[in-house]
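Trying the structure run again after the queue cleared.
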Amino acid sequence: MPCRAFVPLLIFDEKGIVLAASREELIGTSFSNRGYYQVPKQQGDSTALYVSPPFKSVLGPIILNLSRIVPTPDGTFGGVVVAALDPSCFGILLSSVRYAPDLVCAITHGDGLRFMVVPERPELVGENQDVAGSFFARHRASRRAENVFAGKSVAAGEAQMMAIQTVRPVALKMNRPLYVFVSRSLDAIYDPWRRQLPGTALFFVLLCSASTVALIVVQQRQRQLEERARQTQALVNLRLGLREYAATHDRQELLQQTLDEVCRLSRSPIGFYHFVEADQQTIALQAWSTRTRREYCTAEGSGGHYPVTSAGVWADCLRQRRSIIHNNYAGLPHKKGLPKGHAPLIRELVVPIFRGELVVAILGVGNKPDDYTDQDVELVSYLADVAWEITEHKRGEEERHKLGIRYQTLQSVSRDGIHILDEEGNLVESNSSFRQMLGYASTDELQLNVAAWDASIPAAELTARVRERIHSPAIFESRHRRRDGSIFDVEISACGVQLEGKWYLYASSRDISGRKETEANLASSNRELEQFAYIASHDLQEPLRKIAGFTELLARRYQGMFDEKGESCMAYIIDGATRMGTLINDILSYSRIIHKARGGAETDCSQVVARVLRDMERTVMENKAEIVCGPLPVIRADQTQLGQLFQNLIANALRYHGAAPPRITINATRQPDAWLFSVADNGIGIGPEFHQRIFAMFQRLHTRAEYPGTGIGLAICRKIVNRHGGKIWVESTEGAGATFFFTLPLTANNQEIMI
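Done. Tokens:
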């Protein structure tokens, strides 16, 4: 019978999930509904070997499973180890019994279901032989281990002679026996017997001999399976024991203990464990085994980092990405030697640990008394994977513990009111600051809904708002209600977090009542100052005009009567009064921008610029300036203030020109949320260190003798842009001209095309 591929070994956890298998694609699959898992779990005898009825496996062939319970250290149910009987093995054994082509051999489960037939008879496999009058029923009723029957077979319908052997070793404590059948037609038996009696005797001798050999082979196979089961159970117990050890020890201690167990099971006095960095080029030694450190090696221990290129032949497992055996270390031609204090090395086995495509760690053992074999590779590879899994699990626990401590610390020291809500708006967790903010004791365990403290949103809308904020993080202002009913202003920062598959709203509330009040008072003071500036600048106009007017009158009437010094003083008075008037006019313009909250109107920016240029025609001509204006939009704005904005920027470009005639370019570009205007010139430029300073009141970069002005023009420009909701800035370097940019936000009326 040809050998078929199927799963010979499975290990299940207590829920019926495959933890380990010789076919990796089945790991993680649930077989909890299968009889070979359910029967051991229900009967609960960890010493029994459970033999399942034959069934068709997910991989194709009819198989028979042997199961044993894996108990936990406290004796409770921890899982099941399942081994499948190898059909090819039984096929060879049964074929060896067949001395004639018409001889039929079969194996039947204790429940009467036929497991296999040699030669192959697919229609008979799985058939129930437990029927009245059958040889099977007669054999089982006899309670004997062996029987030979002759007569008409119920299954075959012909006269046959059948030998039946019950297989149920006492040591195995099988819950169901197996039955071996050897049968032949009576005619085929008696015809040769009639011709030659010695041949009949030989038949019985061969039959008994073959049966004995077959039983011996079966028993050997059973012992191998028992040994494999014991090894598997030992590995499972090791895994469980290391998990228990991890609960009370740190990660380094856990890694040391794991390495010691690997050395014990592989009979290796030397053991080491390395981590491999993500670059796959750097190695970090984490631990030597206890015995290695104590008896064999005084080389540097954990924490050392070095490149793969500096590592010895043991790192071939990383370079070649496979397990490496060096049973003759001394004879290796490419070894680099051992560092000072390193243990003498006779032989070694090193295995890489993969996660995805990356090698994450390397586990090595050395100096086993005899050569390392493929079985050692299988054992150490499994234990290396267990070591990584358990230490990574421990690392995750330690990280979560650290995060928990940090979270608790932040919760306790934060002055903001931190609180977590579920999707229904129920309070899940809060810190003491939040509880005190609402008027509760810091130790109170609050069980409230957001409706109990939110005073800004109707209660019917709160749940929807909470879910909205979970998926749309935001910072916004709101109002909270204290326990006594008083209301206060808060600023809330909120975002959604997902924990264990559920969404929550993580929020932080900050009491801004005091700030709302550093702001109301400031707004009141600003209004008073603005009112004062407006009134003062307006009222100063009259006395200043009188001073300037009478001084000019005096100068004309008594012209020639003053000496040179007197004439100079009169000129200073007139110049000072004139500059003071200009300054007061500029202050008055600035105060009007603040004082008058004028509503915007539809404004054609091209017409505004054209009007400004007409008003400035004389100045433009005197400076021989060239002004180019590109397409400008129609927007909603204060027409007067927009004109003053363009006038101030153009006037600055004309005033601060260089040796070449001024050239000014005005453009506008639509952005997603605003119009971007630019006024560029070829003037003297502005150093980067002055880009912010020039927009402040009375800030001048040159003397009045060099360039006239009051230092208020750009401050007025910034105030106009700010009042329209935009921003203004300059880009320039000294000697290379300047470009002033400002934005005006798009509104429903500010999205017109340019004209």
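The radius of gyration is 48 Å. Worth checking whether this holds up in the mutant runs.
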